[in-house]
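Example 488.
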Amino acid sequence: MFSRYKKNDAAPAKGNQPAEGKVTELPRKKPEGEAASAPPPASMRKPAQQVAARSATADKDQKRKERMAELKLELHRELLENLNLAALDTATEQDLRSEINEITNEVLNQKAVVLNREDRAQLNKELYFEVKGLGPLETLLQDDSVNDILVNGPQQIFVERSGKLELTDITFKDEKHLMRIIDKIVSAVGRRVDESNPYVDARLQDGSRFNAMVPPIAVDGSLVSIRKFKKDKLGIDDLVRFGAFSEEMAAYLQAAVACRLNVIVSGGTGSGKTTTLNALSSFIDNSERILTIEDTAELQLQQTHVGRMESRPPNVEGKGEVSPRDCLKNALRMRPDRIIVGETRGEEVIDMLQAMNTGHDGSMTTIHANNARDGISRLENMIAMAGIEMPLKAVRSQIASAVNLIVQASRLQDGSRRMTSITEITGMEGDVISMQEVFRFQRVGLTPDNKIIGHFTATGVRSHFSERFRLWGYDLPPSIFEPTLAAE
Ligand SMILES: Nc1ncnc2c1ncn2[C@@H]1O[C@H](COP(=O)(O)OP(=O)(O)OP(=O)(O)O)[C@@H](O)[C@H]1O
Ligand SMILES: [Mg+2]
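Predicted structure in complex with adenosine-5'-triphosphate:
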């Protein structure tokens, strides 16, 4: 019996008496050649028979899945009743796995259920994930090809792979099961989620970004979104190799970051803003002191001298909030050479622009916008919403002198993520902020399988910052700014 991690005072679990003399076997696929009276091979059967056979197999598979889910739940309940959860923290993975194995065997025997080896191994694995991990989500968290996990109620889990959404066949048993996993995640970070506090943002232990919203606000069951944390962030070389931007653009961006231009990465949701910001930060000199401010710490800077801050939402009583703006105000007193704000979306914009204007040039942030011009409007709106009463012209000239470069990241319809434009802010013309696009992604068409055909090109304009690049020792060859023709 599972001695080591068993609660001493555990009452004997109810309901697991052997069903007298009755052996239940889960419906399962018969191994080849198992039964002499097996039906003839599919090819020899009539079409109607084939369809019926197919639906019968699907039916059996469905029943088998349901029975497995029930069994897992029963076993899990029993595990929780019997395991000494405090001792689990110190248990090694191997110990726990073998203990779970023992419990499964014991309970299956008691219930007189026969499982084949494969199903048994699968059951053990899932139980381990239920006890130690995040249940059904664990397999997806461990799958490196998955970027995002999106749960729409207990029966529907989508994942994003290579920029495309796919429905998985993984499900939760019911809403209660899903809620238990959500609770496990949020209670681990000292938060709570329930009817009166129906949404939460948190960071998983591995650094993944987690957001959940529970009923009644989420109408058809809890909604969960996870942006998985990549241990190996995509660097500039990877992004160039994946076709996210060209080598010429990389050379230009290196000069721009090294020469301390203020950069804003703009893009839609999931377009690769944080990834781009992280990659750009690799051009910062190792001698500089960098402070980062994020809602969920996602950036992974390579430099030695980095101070990381994470803002904090208010607690259940509405107290204890530390906003990005608070962090930013503090950061300015901490002698930073550069400040990187993960995303500017509220009143912190004021302090960000001020920082960019007053000696912390070379700072960077991201905003949600569809192109450079929209990005500027977004900044103007954020300033207005922060309650700053300033004539529009003054707001614009503040933006124009703070921001030097807007890098646009986009997720295109084929799922690819690309830097679709690099735009320089050149100043003011009357009441309008003037800007010039230096590089862009030129789309030329679609392949038959809906992949986008296109190429990166310079627009032919000379960089507004050429002189600055030269003075700082980054003499970019003029060929970088020459338009590229489409490859034949
Ligand atoms: N060029 C790229 N090629 C392939 N994958 C990419 C590329 N850029 C980003 N990704 C992946 O896409 C996912 C989303 O990227 P990222 O977190 O940078 O987007 P984001 O715009 O910051 O999203 P959000 O708006 O949710 O903050 C990540 O898993 C990242 O690894
Ligand atoms: Mg992001």
